[in-house]
Amino acid sequence: MNLRDKLRGLLVRLYARRVEGHLDHAQVPKHIGVIMDGNRRWAKASGSTTVHGHRAGADKIEEFLGWCTETDVEVVTLWLLSTDNFDRPQEELVPLLGIIEDVVRTLAADGRWRVHHVGAMDLLPGGMQATLKEAEEATAHIKGIVVNVAIGYGGRQEIADAVRSMLFDAQDKGVAMEDLAESVDIDMIGRHLYTSDQPDPDLVIRTSGEQRLSGFMLWQTAHSEYHFCDVYWPAFRKVDFLRALRDYAARHRRYGG
């Protein structure tokens, strides 16, 4: 590392401390959703392989959750694999699935976080299904941040699954279709979502410069704030995270007043 890079790093750290020092913890979002975008583009820009990019993105997760712990966030939803990702070439998809399994095992073994899967379990390979169930069981007693690992997740799929679950539930209880139609409301559908017992995201962060949700938590983000960051996910820094929290707090105060 040359002198210019060292100086730049020092200035970034000093700026991060300044932003953190002015952060009002009463205005911190309780639930943050993260669309971790840009692994492949980061890899291409750095001259490495796509698999290396996915591994670098996976390595960023624990660091990110550490920042969330420091700032009193209670729930984090990490979008690790969408339903659309299953259309990727096998030479990319198979290593990616392995990396994601490693992420789940690492989060469960850490001991600080409660792991919860959100997504269509039946779309996943049997080994990953077992890993997710083991992680949920092993961390069910932990009181720290709830970490939703969105794997095999799509917003439209979630709503379809919620409606299907609601219909089966009514059938099991012997509720007539006419009575169900009369009683359906927002709260009833919400109780059948993957995140049924959790608060909706207050803030959604998307890295890589893309400014769209791509189907992420379509139902739950109706009133969320969005923060779009130009940095690729593997290069996401604490200062970028703190800027997102600062921007959220400013919007939250303005809308609340």
UniProtKB/TrEMBL annotation:
The keyword Metal-binding is annotated on this UniProt entry: yes
EC number of this enzyme: 2.5.1.-
HAMAP family for this protein: ISPT
NCBIfam families, alphabetized: PRK14828.1 (NF011403), uppS (TIGR00055)
Cofactor note: Binds 2 magnesium ions per subunit.
GO CC annotation terms, alphabetical: plasma membrane
Subunit structure: Homodimer.
Tree of life domain: Bacteria
Binding site for Mg(2+): D37, E225
GO MF annotations in UniProt: ditrans,polycis-polyprenyl diphosphate synthase [(2E,6E)-farnesyl diphosphate specific] activity; magnesium ion binding; Z-farnesyl diphosphate synthase activity
UniProt-annotated binding residues for substrate: 38-42, 54, 82-84, 86, 88, 206, 212-214
A GO BP annotation: polyprenol biosynthetic process
Catalytic residue list: D37, N85
Protein name according to UniProt: Isoprenyl transferase
Family classification: Belongs to the UPP synthase family. Z-FPP synthase subfamily.
The protein's required cofactors: Mg(2+)
PANTHER family: DEHYDRODOLICHYL DIPHOSPHATE SYNTHASE COMPLEX SUBUNIT DHDDS, DEHYDRODOLICHYL DIPHOSPHATE SYNTHASE FAMILY MEMBER
